[in-house]
Design goal:
The chain is built from 18 helices and 22 strands. By secondary structure, it is an alpha/beta fold. Strands 8, 9, 11, 13, 14, 15 and 16 form a 7-stranded mixed β-sheet that branches.
């Protein structure tokens, strides 16, 4: 048989030898569900305000195990399991967990709990004769209905002291590092939902922050000779004209003509953003500075190719300058409409920034809307981080959070936690809160069940499967805290039956049903809604997967 032979596991193949026994497959290969259950059970202990840790064995036996309470990180540590079909199911769940982390930072354990319960409910329905395609349709309709219900439960963002209290309550439920969460609550309160938070390592063990006014790019000055404060290696100019050139400052005669035009327009200082600077152009700019006629600060255009074009577009929106294409010949034709303005600009050998630009309101509004759409659509974590930095520049807010710790491993863990928490807090600050994530999902489940409990078609079964799955997070939180899940569900259900408009939920710290909002127990509305959407999408894919294709691994060569 050729090495390229592939073998198939499908619904048609209903038996498989496992542990020397024959195991029937009613719906699809049961090991697909085994992989989903395995990963879900690994991350579910992290759900709730009183979570338990998950131990990950170190690659080297001499090192201690890694203790984690973040579902996405746990999933990332699991590379592969032995059973190839179960591994396919596990990878489906792993991908869904990572999607939650990339888009929200938080909510991965909630999503996994809903997805596992939903798949289990759907498998039972299919085994009873329901059609997978119709169940999928019902699940998708249920997700849309649940999302609409959650939006009606959403408490809109506030301001002032109430805003800080809500952010602090959310941070406490997400993060158990008091120093980190207090610092991030302050940063998010100051910057708002659109500010950029840049997390870096701190050489000291403490956590610190720095606020940067205006916008900043990681691009240097084009020559150190323009420093206004040589002792601190920084150049500063005030009330400056802005010229954006998508090319190189090269010909001296063109640069000289451009400076002459700027002077005639009434400008006495200028920030020039260009791709590069020739020696003869540099000499002209330095001579202009030394003569006192014009203070000039040339800086390098950020990025390369497409990223440079985007950075220049953002600078244009922030300063009102037009982007000049080509080399310095464009300067010789400079017009007043080509020139922007900033109140202050600065540059070092590593970065430059602007403060108080003459903004183009229409271009700025369009750019901000475009970046927000891309953040919602992008799944790559690094690209999302870049987009958030860009959004922070456009909105005029940037903070650098320096995270330190006693060891490198702890520092890495705190940095990951800072990124996760900052994203969750900013989503809540922008989109609002729900009174307890598990409680809000349970309340949505009761509404779905009451609307569809008398229908018996397969689509209605799909919606019912989703409704029952939405009860799972509340019951898992109760179980993790040592309470009987069924008893807790009954108490909350009774409280909601008594008053459907109440924010009833179970506080595992006090061990009783309370008004979650009054008790200060809140979650990000956007995170909870996305958890439902991702879980529904993942489960719908699983139940309509009729075949799993494996690639035969090449045989390992043996030596006599």
């Amino acid at each position: 048989m050729p090495k390229s032979h592939r073998f198939l596991t499908s619904r048609a193949q209903t038996t498989r030898r496992r542990n020397h026994r024959i195991r029937p497959s009613v719906v699809f290969h049961p090991n697909l569900l085994d992989g989903i259950n395995l990963l879900a059970e690994a991350v579910k202990p992290t759900l709730g305000p009183l979570p338990r840790h998950v131990g990950i064995e170190a690659m080297m036996r001499s090192r201690p195990p890694e203790l984690l309470d973040d579902a996405a990180t746990i999933a990332r540590r699991i590379i592969e399991i032995a059973d190839p079909t179960a591994d396919v199911g596990l990878m489906m769940m792993r991908h869904a967990l990572w999607r939650m982390y990339q888009t929200c930072g938080d909510g991965s354990a909630t999503m996994a709990t809903i997805a596992q319960a939903l798949v289990q409910q759907a498998v039972r329905a299919i085994a009873a004769g329901a059609h997978p395609a119709l169940l999928r349709k019902g699940i998708e309709q249920g997700v849309a209905r649940a999302s609409a219900l959650l939006r009606t439960f959403t408490l809109r963002p506030t301001s002032g002291r109430r805003n800080r209290e809500m952010l602090a309550a959310l941070a406490k439920s997400v993060c158990h590092d008091a120093e980190l969460r207090d610092m991030l609550v302050e940063v998010v309160e100051i910057l708002g939902p659109d500010g950029a938070i840049h997390v870096v390592n701190n050489e000291a063990r403490r956590i610190d922050r720095e606020y940067i006014e205006g916008a900043m790019w990681d691009a240097p000055w084009l020559a150190a000779g323009f420093a206004t404060d040589p002792a601190q290696s920084v150049a500063r100019i005030f009330d400056a004209a802005v010229i954006l050139l998508d090319g190189k400052l090269d010909a001296a005669v063109d640069v000289l003509e451009g400076l002459r035009r700027l002077y005639n327009f009434g400008h006495r200082s200028a920030l020039i953003v260009a791709g590069d600077l020739s020696d003869e152009a540099k000499a002209v700019l330095i001579q202009a500075k030394l003569s006192g006629a014009l203070s000039v600060l040339p800086v390098k255009a950020p990025g390369f190719d497409a990223k440079r074009a985007i950075a220049l577009q953002d600078l244009s929106a922030l300063t009102g300058a037009r982007i000049l294409m080509g080399n310095s010949a464009a300067l010789a034709k400079l017009t007043p409409e080509d020139v922007g303005n900033v109140r202050r600009a600065w540059a070092t050998a590593r970065q430059f920034g602007i403060i108080g630009g003459k903004r183009d309101p229409i271009a700025l509004r369009d750019a901000i809307a475009s970046v927000r759409r891309k953040i919602d659509e992008t799944r790559d974590l690094e690209e999302v981080a870049e987009l958030r930095m860009r959004l922070g520049r456009l909105c005029g807010g940037l903070a650098i959070l320096r995270v330190g710790a006693a060891t490198n491993k702890l520092q890495e863990s705190r940095r990951d936690e800072a990124v996760r928490l900052s994203r969750s807090l900013q989503m809540a600050a922008g989109r609002g809160y729900v009174a307890g994530g598990g409680a809000a999902l349970f309340k949505a489940a009761q509404a779905l069940l009451s609307n569809h409990e008398r229908k018996d078609d397969d689509v209605a079964f799909g919606m019912r499967c989703l409704a029952l799955a939405l009860e799972a997070p509340l019951m898992t939180i109760a179980a993790n805290a040592g309470f009987d899940p069924s008893d807790v569900a009954g108490q909350v259900r009774a409280a909601l039956d008594a008053d459907a408009r109440a924010h009833a939920g179970f506080d595992v710290r006090s061990g009783r049903v309370v008004d979650m909002l009054a008790a200060g127990i809140v979650d990000s509305a956007e995170v909870i809604e996305r958890a439902v959407r991702v879980a529904g999408s993942m489960a719908a894919t699983v139940i309509t997967t009729d075949a799993v294709v494996h690639h035969r691994k090449p045989a390992t060569a043996t030596h006599p």
